[in-house]
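Practice problem: predict the structure.
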Amino acid sequence: MKLFKRSLAITSLFLLSISFQQCNSSDTVLESSDIIVGTWKLTSLKVDGAETITTCKESNTYTFESGQVLRKELYDVVNGNCQLIQTQIFSWLRIERGRYSLTSSNGFNTVEDFTFTDNDTKFSVTEMVNGEQIVSVFTKQP
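Answer:
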């Protein structure tokens, strides 16, 4: 009976250690090699199909860090000068390819669909705001 209990304990410990190794290595791969990781610049902003991007808005950047932090730097013209007007911090989590959960620092959560194109060097996000379709296109920076 002691031999059976010892064998069962060793087998259980072995299976438990394998499951931890698989979970850790899988999580690391998803986080560090996800196609979203990097800095992305806004390169197109269409409202109901019409291009509306300005030189200043092209300074907007989204930086997705491998630690699942998203930093949005938003620019706008203030007193005739293009200025950084807001930096927003989010946590991000990949749900599946092209679908991410974004949680703001105040706890607001949203799920966004990203459409990747051009060998995953561009993504677009489509939103409806006040009855208008807004398509934002971002290009990955080297």
